[in-house]
UniProtKB/TrEMBL annotation:
<keyword id="KW-0964">Secreted</keyword>
<keyword id="KW-0812">Transmembrane</keyword>
<dbReference type="GO" id="GO:0005576">
    <property type="term" value="C:extracellular region"/>
</dbReference>
<feature type="domain" description="Gnk2-homologous">
    <location>
        <begin position="134"/>
        <end position="239"/>
    </location>
</feature>
<keyword id="KW-1133">Transmembrane helix</keyword>
<keyword id="KW-0472">Membrane</keyword>
<keyword id="KW-0732">Signal</keyword>
<feature type="transmembrane region" description="Helical">
    <location>
        <begin position="254"/>
        <end position="273"/>
    </location>
</feature>
<protein>
    <recommendedName>
        <fullName>Gnk2-homologous domain-containing protein</fullName>
    </recommendedName>
</protein>
<comment type="similarity">
    <text>Belongs to the cysteine-rich repeat secretory protein family.</text>
</comment>
<dbReference type="InterPro" id="IPR050581">
    <property type="entry name" value="CRR_secretory_protein"/>
</dbReference>
<dbReference type="InterPro" id="IPR038408">
    <property type="entry name" value="GNK2_sf"/>
</dbReference>
<dbReference type="InterPro" id="IPR002902">
    <property type="entry name" value="GNK2"/>
</dbReference>
<dbReference type="Pfam" id="PF01657">
    <property type="entry name" value="Stress-antifung"/>
</dbReference>
<feature type="domain" description="Gnk2-homologous">
    <location>
        <begin position="27"/>
        <end position="130"/>
    </location>
</feature>
<keyword id="KW-0677">Repeat</keyword>
<feature type="signal peptide">
    <location>
        <begin position="1"/>
        <end position="24"/>
    </location>
</feature>
Amino acid sequence: MVDFDVQTFIVFLVFMLSLGICHADRNLYSGLQCSQADNSSESSFGVNLDNLLDLLTQKGPLSKGFLKTTVGRSSGKIYGLMQCRGDVSAENCANCTRESVAVALHDCSKSKKVQVWFTWCFLRYSNEHFFGVWDQSSAAIVNETDFDDASVVSKALTFMSEVAITAPKQPLMFHAALLDAGQFGKRYGMAQCTRDISTTDCSHCLDTQLMTFRTTIGNKRGWEVYGSSCSMWYHDYQFYSNFSITANDGARRLSLQGVATGIIMAVLVFIFVP
Ligand SMILES: *[C@@H]1O[C@H](CO)[C@@H](O)[C@H](O)[C@H]1NC(C)=O
Ligand SMILES: *[C@@H]1O[C@H](CO)[C@@H](O)[C@H](O)[C@H]1NC(C)=O
Ligand SMILES: *[C@@H]1O[C@H](CO)[C@@H](O)[C@H](O)[C@H]1NC(C)=O
Ligand SMILES: *[C@@H]1O[C@H](CO)[C@@H](O)[C@H](O)[C@H]1NC(C)=O
């Protein structure tokens, strides 16, 4: 666990260091950020929080994997948001949201500002209004010794810039694409914004992540940047469900099962940018 000082409160940003083999069809815990424990909470906060988390868990997965809502009034008011990755099925989205809620309540039970990242979903709540506000916080997970070939690296940055340009224009502000790197195989990219922010802020958010991290992650075979308002991933395996393959079935509720196997997600370094 690593402690960061961000803004006025202590933030814990925890990235699981469980290295080794992970599978793309599994929902993995990626990180957590919560404000300092506040023991002075009025009891209404806890009641409101329970109601909020119920709402997010039950309605979010059924509303295209995104919901922002508030519960309570005046000082007891809580703002909550959940969003699943754009390709994740409603069922997996629901599971992921439940898991995020469990983590939040277990690890940050006395915090008023909480963010939880899983591979399939993101949960955030706060006693302060944050809807529609681009938050520049983000963290990168990368195996810092897993360098890619130089010829792929130059293509990769252009490729990810294109992914970043395309994502804001999509209905879910989610875009996945693949890069054919010839003899070096394929690379896969994804960009997504939380759907409370504007498309303009989505573009800025993704651009900023690329600019911020390009020198540290750009020459690696894989990385994941998780932010409060947007996220970008890049890997040498397909980690998302391909909509167009199954579009003929008329089904967008995809399960990630069978997408990719044998993934080594090396979590060695994370870089935090307030
Ligand atoms: C709040 O309570 C917890 C134990 O419940 C304690 O560890 C923590 O130090 C307290 N925080 C403050 C700011 O008093
Ligand atoms: C959701 O979680 C339950 C148990 O927590 C599990 O039995 C079920 O298979 C999960 N569903 C999916 C789609 O992963
Ligand atoms: C990081 O990448 C290097 C080079 O590919 C690899 O040998 C190492 O096993 C990776 N680390 C982890 C923890 O997977
Ligand atoms: C999805 O699959 C189709 C058909 O195999 C392929 O042409 C397309 O590039 C894939 N898209 C992504 C984002 O992987």
